[in-house]
Amino acid sequence: MLRKLLSAALIATAFAVAPAHAAPPALEIGYLPILPDAQLFVALEEGTLQAKGAPAPKLVQFQSGPALTQALLAGQLDVAYVGIGPALVASAKGAGIKVVASNIVEQVNVVALGALAPYFASGDPATAFARFAKDKGRKPVIASYPKGAVPEAALQYWLRNRLKADPASLELIYQGEAQIQQSLLTGAIDGAAILEPTVTTVLTRAPDSRVVA
Hints:
- This protein is of the alpha/beta class and about 210 residues long.
- It has nine helices and eight strands.
């Protein structure tokens, strides 16, 4: 049976076609610890993901969309709450998955920390990274989700098409959600492309940080 990529909001309809005497098995649902996936927990609380008599769904947490999608394609999951980027890549490679719903738009923010933030507050934003590198003697380190994830794609689009910054003026590294938050809060990096609730957490706990895109 083909595994399907579903939105949690529509999983309950899949149970409706099952014979009344055949209790469906527990769903294994992959998710990321980000605000868009909050709908999953609301659905679990309301019981809309569980047919009568069926065991409770099993949740499996991942730190990036590409890793989650790989688990889905390997048959380790039944359902994935994942960004459209990894889903499109998997579908383009012939994977038997289907996107049936979306739940959020404009979810990615680029946040700069104290040392970098002032360069976006004044002067041409397109040269902010280059001016930082000239003054500090090093390139600013910007973190993103792994390649193929929605935040990484959004960051690349912003850098190349909106900001039009020189790619050589910054160092881009790839981390998972938890690692990016920790790196921002400890000052190990200068900025990142992130999602909620990490955006609010960083802005609250690092007062010298600011959203630049």
